[in-house]
C-alpha cells in the first residue's frame, strides 16, 4: 500500500508541470481569445469594449476578405492533400525497392522537411525571380519568363508547389514505414496467385497500406489548413491579396491592423470549421486505421 501511495504521488507530481505548461500555453489563450471575440479591442486600451456578437456579424456580413481567404485555403488544402499523398506514395514505392542509392535518395527527399518554412519561402522566392530569369536567358523557354509570383493564378500554384516540395519527405517516410511493415507472406501469395503490377497495387498494397494512408491524409489536412509562414515569406499574401490564407488573414487583422477582437472572432470561426473538417476526415476512415 505504501508503494502504491508513493507511486501515485510521484505520478501527480511529475504530471503537474506538464499540465500547467499546457494550460498556460494552450487553454488560457484559447479561453481569452473566446472572450476577446466578443469585444472591440486594439491591444493597447486597458479594458476591451464588449460588443456582443458584433465581430461575428461583421465576418458574415462585411467579411469578404475572410471568406476569400477561406476559399484560397480550401483550394490549397485540396491540391496539397492530393499532390502530397499521390507523389509521396509513388516515390515511397520506388524507394522501398533495394538499389544502391535508395537510402541516399530518402535522405535527399527528407532534407527540405527539416528546413524552416520561412527559409524555404525565401529560397523559392529567389528561384522564381532571379533563378528563373537565369534559366530563361540560358534556354529561352517561355515558362521561365512567366511572372510566377506576380500573377494571381500562377502565385497560387507556386505556393502549392513549394508547400508540397517542402513536406514531401515526411510523408514519404510514413509511406515507406507502412510498406516495410506489410506481411511479406501476403505479398508473396498475391504474386503466386498472379497479381502483378497495377492489380497488385490496387488489390493488395493499397488495402494493406490504409492505416498509413489515413494518417497521411489527416496530417496533410491539418498542415494545409494552418499554412502561414511559407506564404508570408513567399508572397506576403500578394499579388493583390490573392494568396491570403485564413491564418494569414487573422494575423493581418489582429497584429497588423490592431483589431484583436475581430481577429479573435475570425480564429474562433476558423476553429469551428477545422473541427468539423477533421471530424469528417476521421469518419471517412475506420477508427482502427488511425
List the helices and strands and how they pair.
Layout: H1 2-36, E1 39-40, E2 49-50, H2 54-62, H3 64-95, H4 102-114, H5 117-139, H6 152-180, H7 184-192, H8 197-208, H9 210-225, H10 229-234, H11 246-256, H12 260-284
Antiparallel strand pairs: 1-2
Helix pairs in contact: 1-12, 2-3, 2-12, 3-6, 3-9, 3-11, 4-6, 6-9, 9-12, 11-12
Estimate the strand proportion: under 5%
Largest sheet: 2 strands, antiparallel
CATH topology, anyone?
Answer: MetI-like fold
Please tell me the overall pLDDT.
88
- State the total count of DSSP E strands: 2
Distance between the termini: 38 Å
Fourth-tier CATH superfamily name: MetI-like
Structural class: mainly alpha
The CATH architecture would be: Orthogonal Bundle
Assign an overall shape. Answer: globular
pLDDT under 50 segments (min length 5)? none
Percent helix, as a range, is over 70%
Overview of the structural elements:
With 290 residues, this protein is mainly alpha-helical. The protein has a single domain (66-289), classed as MetI-like fold (Orthogonal Bundle). The chain is 76% helix and 1% strand. The protein has 12 helices and 2 strands. It has a two-stranded antiparallel sheet. Helix 1 packs across helix 12 and helix 2 crosses helix 12. The longest helix is centred in the first third of the chain and has 35 residues, at 2-36. The relative contact order is 0.13. The model has no long low-confidence stretch (mean pLDDT 88).
Amino acid at each position: 500500500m505504501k508503494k502504491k501511495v508513493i507511486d501515485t504521488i510521484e505520478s501527480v507530481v511529475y504530471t503537474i508541470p506538464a499540465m500547467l505548461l499546457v494550460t498556460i500555453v494552450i487553454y488560457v489563450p484559447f479561453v481569452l481569445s473566446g472572450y476577446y471575440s466578443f469585444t472591440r479591442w486594439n491591444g493597447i486600451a486597458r479594458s476591451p469594449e464588449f460588443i456582443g456578437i458584433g465581430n461575428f456579424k461583421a465576418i458574415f456580413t462585411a467579411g469578404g476578405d475572410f471568406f476569400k481567404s477561406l476559399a484560397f485555403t480550401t483550394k490549397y488544402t485540396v491540391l496539397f492533400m492530393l499532390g502530397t499523398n499521390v507523389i509521396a506514395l509513388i516515390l515511397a514505392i520506388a524507394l522501398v525497392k533495394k538499389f544502391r542509392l535508395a537510402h541516399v535518395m530518402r535522405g535527399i527527399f527528407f532534407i527540405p522537411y527539416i528546413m524552416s518554412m520561412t527559409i524555404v519561402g525565401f529560397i523559392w522566392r529567389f528561384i522564381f525571380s532571379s533563378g528563373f530569369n537565369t534559366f530563361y536567358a540560358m534556354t529561352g523557354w517561355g515558362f521561365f519568363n512567366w511572372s510566377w509570383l506576380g500573377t494571381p493564378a500562377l502565385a497560387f500554384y507556386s505556393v502549392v508547389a513549394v508547400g508540397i516540395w517542402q513536406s514531401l519527405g515526411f510523408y514519404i517516410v510514413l509511406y515507406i514505414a507502412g510498406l516495410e511493415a506489410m506481411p511479406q507472406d501476403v505479398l508473396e501469395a498475391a504474386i503466386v496467385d498472379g497479381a502483378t503490377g497495377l492489380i497488385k497495387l490496387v488489390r493488395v498494397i493499397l488495402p494493406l497500406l490504409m492505416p498509413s494512408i489515413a494518417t497521411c491524409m489527416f496530417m496533410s489536412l491539418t498542415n494545409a489548413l494552418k499554412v502561414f509562414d511559407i506564404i508570408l515569406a513567399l508572397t506576403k499574401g500578394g499579388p493583390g491579396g490573392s494568396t491570403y490564407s485564413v491564418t494569414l488573414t487573422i494575423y493581418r487583422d489582429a497584429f497588423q491592423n490592431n483589431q484583436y477582437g475581430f481577429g479573435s472572432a475570425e480564429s474562433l470561426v476558423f476553429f469551428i470549421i477545422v473541427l468539423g473538417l477533421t471530424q469528417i476526415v476521421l469518419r471517412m476512415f475506420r477508427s482502427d486505421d488511425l
